[in-house]
Amino acid sequence: MTVDQKIRVIDRLRLGFAVSIAKSVTFFVRSLRLGAASVLPGSIARRIEPRILELLSQQVKNGVILIAGTNGKTTTALLLCSILTKKGFRIAHNSTGANLENGLATALIDNANLLGKLNIDYAILEIDENIVPKVLNPLKPRIILCLNLFRDQLDRYGEVDTISKRWTKVISTLPETTVVIPNADDPTLSYLGQQLPQRVLFFGLNEPENYLESIPHAVDSIYCPRCGHPLDYQGVYLSHLGDFTCPSCGFSKSKPTLFSREWPQILVGLYNKYNTLAAVTAAQELGVDAVSIKDTINHFQAAFGRAEDLVIDGKKVRILLSKNPVGTNETIRVVTQSSDKTTLLVLNDRTPDGTDVSWIWDVDTEKLVERGGTLVVSGDRVYDMALRLRYSQSSVESHINLIVEPDLQQAIATALEHTPIHETLHILPTYSAMLEVREILTGRKIL
């Protein structure tokens, strides 16, 4: 046996040992109902075999698909998984939303046998925008979906420009066989795609009738990424996503591969049109026919907490994850376009949410207050949210019933009491709050 052969045998043994230990941890954690075991097994396995992401991803038959961005990763990944699963492909997917290195490793380990062997066609992995530079080389993705870049958890990541520069640097080093699918309506990502040597397919909207009346406060990147001059917008769809040109250097929006009006969308909200188009562009690149894609879209079920509809005590409840300015503005748009008059906002500041909640002052809560109705607020930072709404009241003419309830279970019960039987209660929680809301709604009776 040569030295190289011995090294390969040792690698296989170490990989098998790491996977076996991780699977044992998963079994005990889930058996004892200590959690979802979506992170710890991967953390332990990576200590035993630091190259586990590389060694497992190499075994994926048709390649790894990475989905990166601030908003929409979970929904886009779930839709693409649904499309490919319906066509009979075997998929590995970090469906719990654990999108850092340990979560990615756990998702692949869950689909491996005790010897560390994978028998799957695709790995669809949503990844946190900040770890893109860390995982691209070990995973060697076949396709990268770049959804958007917004401000999110400023205490951890900083501003949009910092993230975009990291993305540009690392993606340009990948093989030319990699397919990159950026959002054409995001100036930073549109410019990124125009500079890459890889094959690039863009997705975006061509629907001027859906322009916002004005650029919202929660705008992140309205300057030309090439020369720094303010962009001229023909219109914006949300935040800084829209149709734009630079009057100084001529930079303009890239042409989307798909004509957006030809495709139905999943769920509610214009932001889900973007998620739909991203998944459709990837699916068509993989050879899936349009009929199958549209059928999957029409039967799509929401991921937990993302426009998820529940029925509680005979009343409809819709959970709309709201974790940053852009996302919250879009969920507020969904609420204000409905005829429903009761909304529950839940603001937490835990690690999954980001400890800096100053972003709520970039949210256009005035639109929510202006329409009237009942607003119930809760969460760890309940008084911050209540203060934000009080300031909104002072700037617009409104007649709202503002209820401040620190106890989340009581807040949910109060919001349900104020929701007429024929209306829907909209709940807008941050990430950790969303998990608590779902536990209360689906795991226990309301007061």
UniProtKB/TrEMBL annotation:
Where are the active-site residues found?
D356
Pathway this chain belongs to: Cell wall biogenesis; peptidoglycan biosynthesis
Identify the InterPro entries for this entry: Folylpolyglutamate_synth_CS, Lipid_II_synth_MurT, Mur-like_cat_sf, Mur_ligase_cen, MurT_C
**A GO molecular-function term, please?**
ATP binding
EC identifiers of the protein: 6.3.5.13
State where Zn(2+) binds: C224, C227, C246, C249
Q: Domain of life here?
A: Bacteria
One GO process term, biological-process aspect: cell wall organization
Q: Tell me which residues make up the Mur ligase central domain.
A: 67-211
Cite the entry's keywords alphabetically. Answer: ATP-binding, Cell shape, Cell wall biogenesis/degradation, Ligase, Metal-binding, Nucleotide-binding, Peptidoglycan synthesis, Zinc
EC class of the enzyme, as a word:
ligase
Family, per entry: Belongs to the MurCDEF family. MurT subfamily.
Which PANTHER family does the record cross-reference, listed alphabetically? Answer: LIPID II ISOGLUTAMINYL SYNTHASE (GLUTAMINE-HYDROLYZING) SUBUNIT MURT (PTHR23135:SF7), MUR LIGASE FAMILY MEMBER (PTHR23135)
Q: How does it assemble?
A: Forms a heterodimer with GatD.
Annotated protein name in UniProt = Lipid II isoglutaminyl synthase (glutamine-hydrolyzing) subunit MurT
Tell me the organism: Cuspidothrix issatschenkoi CHARLIE-1
